[in-house]
Amino acid sequence: MKLITAIIKPFKMDDVREALSEIGVSGVTATEVKGFGRQKGHTELYRGAEYVVDFLPKVKLEIAVADDVLEKAINAIVKAANTGKIGDGKIFVISLEQVIRIRTGETGEDAI
After folding, report:
1. From the CB of residue 3, how many other CB atoms can be counted at a distance below 10 Å?
2. Cα–Cα distance for residue pair 13/88, rounded to 1 Å
3. Which of 32, 33, 29 minimizes the C-alpha distance to 20?
4. Which residues contact 93 (CB under 8 A, 6 or more apart)?
5. 60-111 pLDDT per residue, tens
6. What is the pTM for the complete model shown?
7. Pairing of strands 49-53, 2-8
8. Alpha helix locations (H) across 29-111?
9. How high is the pLDDT of residue 38?
10. Which of 23, 42, 90, 109 is the most buried (most CB within 10 A)?
11. What is the pLDDT of residue 43?
12. CA 21 to CA 51: how far, in whole Å?
């Protein structure tokens, strides 16, 4: 089992969720976050004054998947979140040692 963490642009969240649903991935946790990478923020003009926006709004998605679904899920995220512009985001994959569904006590892939 793997945990996929994807940092994407906020307006791409629905596209990614739909793409994951199409391949049978049903559980996604989304968190609004701020950050920067190579994009390094930008300057904006507000009421005549310029100011720097260092941290840009992003969405962090966390998806637990079985090993056999991993590549499909990654491909779905990449395809749905891609705009071709800087700041499209990153995907991190971490191994999960154990998963437990609290309500039923199911463990492993059954809990996903």
Report:
1. 14
2. 12
3. 29
4. 2, 3, 4, 5, 70, 74
5. 999 999 999 999 999 999 999 999 988 899 999 999 999 999 999 999 999 9
6. 0.85
7. unpaired
8. 70-81
9. 73
10. 109
11. 66
12. 40
